[in-house]
Amino acid sequence: MAQETASVPTDLPVKRPREEEQNGASATGGAMETENSTDNGTPGISSVIPGWFSEISPMWPGEAHSLKVEKILFQGKSDYQNVMVFQSATYGKVLVLDGVIQLTERDECAYQEMITHLPLSSIPNPKKVLVIGGGDGGVLREVGRHSSVEQIDICEIDKMVVDVSKQFFPEVAIGYQDPRVTLHIGDEYQMFKLGKNKIDLNTFSLLRSSGPAQELFEKPFFQSVANALRPGGVVCTQAESIWLHMHIIEDIVSNCRQIFKGSVNYAWTTVPTYPSGVIGFMLCSTEGPSVDFKKPVSSIDTSTDYNKARGPLKFYNPEIHTAAFCLPAFAKKVIDAKAK
Amino acid sequence: MAQETASVPTDLPVKRPREEEQNGASATGGAMETENSTDNGTPGISSVIPGWFSEISPMWPGEAHSLKVEKILFQGKSDYQNVMVFQSATYGKVLVLDGVIQLTERDECAYQEMITHLPLSSIPNPKKVLVIGGGDGGVLREVGRHSSVEQIDICEIDKMVVDVSKQFFPEVAIGYQDPRVTLHIGDEYQMFKLGKNKIDLNTFSLLRSSGPAQELFEKPFFQSVANALRPGGVVCTQAESIWLHMHIIEDIVSNCRQIFKGSVNYAWTTVPTYPSGVIGFMLCSTEGPSVDFKKPVSSIDTSTDYNKARGPLKFYNPEIHTAAFCLPAFAKKVIDAKAK
């Protein structure tokens, strides 16, 4: 089992204040009404399809994706957010933070495999990995597939996310069973100090609920990341949707281009339960051995006991790795201009 | 302007009967409630987010995508279906047939450009094109970008779709202004007889509302298509979602592999307002000059007057063409097995 360290002091806020109410929806995002509920005055509850969960947010105004709810399995409030798990009719169990879908059992493979293997397959023999966020454990499960990896640190601010995942998503939280994993509950800045110039890969499985998470997409933050990486080390972070957030993506690419002296690339993939059905990834490397993210250099050894136990990859393969960097014309024009 | 022929006799049904009611949703698919509406007993109307349009169908049970409605611009009933146009808050104007979103101004570029340029860029100097469905005119607009094309026939069964597109979607229906275009209102089987062994490209922009459209995905239908194509001619049809309809896709690929003696390939792209956020395409070629769909052989001459007037492509480019054929592991496994 993974070790669990004492909490790291949280001297810097990770979550930013919610945006103001907009679009007629509760600013907490999301809306839930059980079949017997008639109370539309409760915060976060609005008039939606009875018995369905609807994801409404000022981050994607004017549209909402809804899933039919079979049963609510957990509702709690941590120091940081509202945490909910429900059994959906057709997407398996669903984890929701502050009204925003984080994962469903049916499509979590796409996000977890891509945010992990896009960067890890782009460098030879990765050894030290730092995961920020991703408390559900799915990224850990995928990192563990790379047999060269010796050390996996994960820094998650909200212990409730870890606990809930272990209870309701055992096939995701299985990532914690890897003896290479150490869980740190707390703020990520301390982790960067520990990892200075040592880390091969830093993956950010940022909470989608934190919206544009401005401070995590700005230069001082990326500078901390760059400092923590070894020469030629890489970072991969969730980076919004090309259909919804081109203005944010433009800023992220621009900031990364100034901070990271190696490669700076944007990739994307399909995730049905994320707004607009896609999610992007920002991949950067530091000065040092050059990294061509578009051409995977290491493959996953499927014959290891670890990979046999976890079963085959559901989503990632080398072809879809390369394809993920091909952008539609409207996105390519903007991103290429900023990435140079 | 395009010519418009007399109606072709419709001796065969194009639309199949609706599937039975399922999942608590009206079997007509879709649900609409205006802000002042309180009538939830009308067929096709259910309790959804007030002032929003929700797309509910037994074809994608347990999930629904909703768009905020600013104003309903048109509601009509043709001999074949219910036709609606509304102004959405964030996706521009939206065309809905029998409760299912056909296109929005914001993302129509992805579907129209990919279903057209994937096949047309895969063969040298296409001359004769037959479009089945796609009465909105968007595919015509894209076909016209290829300057080698001399003749474009479109066969649309529902004249109301054409009229509504010309009235509310001028930037889509602009495709009809091409003098190479001839519009045939009626059933497509007559078109196959007219086109026997002559057509370079046959594109099916099938109505998504017709669900799996069983008879259009079965062998006799594909045999008619194959007969209409010249040796080395190609067909591209809408082919559902890898996330939702792998069992249907498996059958389509299997049928196509038996009928088409050339290449048989599956591609996909992102369309935010289609269920699960993706749509697939089936691309096949007949016996004759070999076609490698994954490698575009002809490019669009952007210097022609036609292309200057239409403006640049928004979505398609040669890289995303090749990337569209890269499938996630779960889909590749099934499709590759059937395509061989």
TrEMBL record, chains A, B:
Residues 1-45 are annotated as: Disordered. Its EC number is 2.5.1.16. Belongs to the spermidine/spermine synthase family. Pathway: Amine and polyamine biosynthesis; spermidine biosynthesis; spermidine from putrescine: step 1/1. One of its GO terms (biological process) is spermidine biosynthetic process. It catalyses: S-adenosyl 3-(methylsulfanyl)propylamine + putrescine = S-methyl-5'-thioadenosine + spermidine + H(+). Pfam families: Spermine_synt_N, Spermine_synth. One of its GO terms (molecular function) is spermidine synthase activity. Residues 34-45 have a biased composition (Polar residues). SUPFAM superfamilies: S-adenosyl-L-methionine-dependent methyltransferases (SSF53335). InterPro entries: PABS (IPR030374), PABS_CS (IPR030373), SAM-dependent_MTases_sf (IPR029063), Spermi_synthase (IPR001045), Spermidine_synt_N (IPR035246), Spermidine_synt_N_sf (IPR037163). Keywords: Polyamine biosynthesis, Transferase. One of its GO terms (cellular component) is cytosol. Signal peptide: none annotated. Residues 50-286 form the PABS domain. The keyword Transferase applies. PROSITE patterns: PABS_1, PABS_2. This is spermidine synthase. It is an enzyme of class 2 (transferase). It comes from Linum tenue. Gene3D superfamilies: Spermidine synthase, tetramerisation domain, Vaccinia Virus protein VP39.
